[in-house]
Amino acid sequence: MDQSVPEIKVPILKPIKVKNMPNQGIIKKVVSSTQEQLNKFADWIISFVPQEVKKPFNKRVEDLKNTVNNIYNSIKKETGNEQTR
Length: 85
Fold this sequence. Notes:
mainly alpha
């Protein structure tokens, strides 16, 4: 901190005005196209409805359901036969 500042013999850069770039129209097209694609993707994500997740059934649960359905169908047949008599 106490040392003297060294003298650098290089000219100091001065800012200059930036000229219009010839590719500015192309850059605008790329930016607008990219923006459009991002908006389409965002709309797709917002409107996406995932499929309902199916819970895995246990084989015993399936067997129980089949047994109950069989009992119900046999009772339904018996009561149907009695009503027709």
